[in-house]
Amino acid sequence: MSTREKLTVALASDHAGYPLKEALIRHLTARDIDCIDCGTNSTESCDYPAYAVSGCCKVLDNDADLTILCCGTGIGMSIAANKLKGIRAACCSDVFSAKYTRAHNNANVLCLGARVVGEGLACELADAFIDTDFEGGKHLRRVEMINELEK
Ligand code: RB5
Question: How far is the CA of 77 from the centre of ligand 1 (A)?
């Protein structure tokens, strides 16, 4: 992933995703994973695209290995994140998808819906995403085809 000693995950949310982001930071910190908190920092209403950018910039600037974004559904965050060149964001609510979007799509951003998944499942989704490596091979060719679409 990087030359960093410890895995680093950036997390960002809007107001709807804020409590879930906080729970994920507690969970990942307990796993000895470095977390970068990109806000928001309360349940006061705010606009998720701004936080999608803040979270994704950490991966794009190589300050983090992966990013997790939380909003109400996870969908708004994923739509916004996927507008950024170099971002492959997946909105997941099942563990199989969270695992295989790393293994096959080399996704670098996981989007979670705080109004869709509970904290326990969200932590399992984050674990599956973080603990799975890209398989490369034929999947690399396909990801490169996605990269071509950005040009
Ligand atoms: C905020 O109410 C909500 O629209 C937002 O968190 C997200 O679900 C958008 O996709």
Answer: 8
Q: Residue with the nearest Cα to atom 8 of ligand 1? A: 72
pLDDT digits (tens, 9 = 90+) for 14-38: 999 999 999 999 999 999 999 999 9
Is 1 among the domain residues?
no
Q: Range of 129's domain? A: 8-149
Output the CA torsion sign for 55, 59, 63, 68: positive
Is 3 part of a structural domain of the chain? no
Q: Is residue 138 part of a domain?
A: yes
Q: What is the pLDDT of residues 59-102, one digit of tens each?
A: 999 999 999 999 999 999 999 999 999 999 999 999 999 999 99
Any idea which residues carry the catalytic annotation? 71, 104
Kindly report the CATH number assigned to the domain that includes residue 15: 3.40.1400.10
Q: Of 29, 31, 33, whose CA–CA distance to 1 is shortest?
A: 33
For residues 122 and 112, give the distance between their C-alpha atoms in angstroms, rounded to a whole number: 7
pTM: 0.98
